[in-house]
Design goal:
By secondary structure, the chain is an alpha+beta fold. The protein has 3 helices and 5 strands, in the order H-H-E-E-E-H-E-E. The protein folds into 2 domains: 75 residues; 91 residues, Ribosomal protein S6/Translation elongation factor EF1B (Alpha-Beta Plaits). Strands 1, 2, 3, 4 and 5 form a 5-stranded antiparallel β-sheet that branches. A hairpin with a 2-residue loop joins strand 2 and strand 3. The longest helix has 67 residues.
Amino acid sequence: MRASIFSGKNRTAAAIAAVAVVLCLAVVYWAAGRYASVSRTASARRADFAKYRAVEEEYLKKKAFVDIKARKAYASDVSESTVAAMERIGARVGAKEAFTAIKPLEEKEAAGYTERGVEVRLERIDLNRLVNLLYLLENNRGLFVIREFSMKARFEDPNLMDCSMKVVHLLKRKTAGP
């Protein structure tokens, strides 16, 4: 009689080999699942990183803008009054005769800054000079902020405008150093 290959020791060896193969397959299946999970997580993190990078770039652009404005506030000439600065800017655009009233407002102190405001009334100013005036206010060496602005066309000549605005000159208070 011939001995079967699945008898005795051979059966035990075959069972151990089958268990080893099943364990190897289980480990490979688990590792593949784990790799897929880690791969999905990594791609999600890369997408998050790209979003954060875009937010960081936007933050840096806005921070640069704020830093420029802060430097303007710190570099402003404290000795020049806001009324004189408005007259100087108006003279630069050739609109000095359009100023009918420049009324200083109360000076305010807030968060390390001094706000010197003026209320300005302009009459019979053409749109080009008004735009140039606003441009010079925005791009001045000092930090000027327009808080209120109203404009209406004149009845007798629609090309001329009457305007009123409140302009605030922000100055950074200098702290006493050691």
